[in-house]
Write a structure and sequence with these properties.
Helices cover 40% and strands 6% of the residues. It is mainly α and 289 residues long.
Length: 289
């Protein structure tokens, strides 16, 4: 309840709408029950021009005032708030573009704040190239259907975020921690995840051609439907990782990984892995389509 009150107070449109509603209700009730009001409150109340006739005329005028306040006033404020919102969104986008490649802690925090504010305005199209957010904890952001080519989050973290249908080739996430995050149908060509922790990250249907996951922890990550042509998994932990319907997947590519226990692949590739890595743990004919 307290949060709702804060939201109403921060919104001029909502505040004016509530005031107008209270006035409409008050004027309506007094007018509807004027006989009772005039007989109990006003019959002997006279102060100069303040007589019963005056209050009757006053109520008639109040109907027009309340109408203007509730309709015209709210409409004007709503249009003004839309204009202000549009101006703020434009400013946030311009700032992101102007400072995208700068790599200073204070500037990086400001850029991340701009993205969060865009999300608060329900803007998910974050179109910036070479955006640097190194060393930051990127939490709860959403980016869909746009470009973050060359995104750099080195030695930082990404938590609870969603990237969907994004062009993110040549991005750099080295030595970062990524969890509870989705990269769905994203273009991550030549992106780097070396020495990163990506437990349970969902890369479904993304292009990971020539992406690098050297020495990364990819336990329980999902690569279903991904294009992994020439991707590097050297020294990676692929325990419980899923590669169903992955394109250009070969046993040679996976054999470079450090841990392949319970990896989920086609029966054909599984047979080749077992032949080359007889010590790996696997689940026989269960859970593999």
């Amino acid at each position: 309840l307290r949060n709702r009150v804060k939201i109403i107070i921060k919104s001029p449109v909502a505040t004016l709408a509530i005031i107008a509603a209270v006035l409409v209700l008050a004027v309506f009730l007094i007018t509807a029950f004027w006989d009772d009001v005039s007989s109990t409150v006003l019959p002997n109340t006279i102060l100069g021009l303040y007589k019963k006739d005056f209050w009757e005329n006053f109520l008639v005028e109040m109907h027009g005032i309340v109408f203007e306040l509730s309709i015209i006033g709210v409409l004007i404020l709503w249009l003004d708030s839309k204009r202000s919102k549009s101006g703020e969104i434009t400013r946030l986008r311009e700032d992101l573009e102007d400072y995208s490649a700068l790599d200073f802690p204070e500037i990086n925090v400001k850029k991340l704040g701009h993205i969060k504010r865009l999300n608060e305005h329900n803007i998910k199209s974050i179109d910036v190239q070479n955006l640097v957010l190194n060393g930051l904890k990127v939490k709860g952001i959403i980016a869909e259907g746009s470009r973050l080519i060359g995104l750099k989050i080195v030695e930082g973290s990404i938590v609870g975020s969603i990237f969907k249908s994004m062009k993110m080739r040549s991005s750099n996430f080295q030595k970062s921690t990524i969890k509870s995050t989705t990269f769905e149908s994203c273009d991550l060509l030549k992106s780097k995840f070396n020495e990163s922790i990506c437990k349970g990250v969902d890369f479904t249907n993304s292009s990971l051609e020539r992406a690098e996951f050297t020495n990364s922890d990819l336990q329980s990550s999902i690569f279903n439907g991904c294009d992994v042509r020439e991707a590097k998994f050297d020294g990676a932990n692929l325990k419980h990782a899923s590669f169903y319907n992955a394109m250009h997947l070969t046993s040679e590519l996976l054999l470079r990984a450090n841990n392949l226990d319970y990896v989920k692949v086609s029966d054909e590739i599984m047979a080749e892995l077992i032949a080359q890595r007889p010590d790996m743990k696997y689940q026989k004919n269960k859970g593999r389509p």
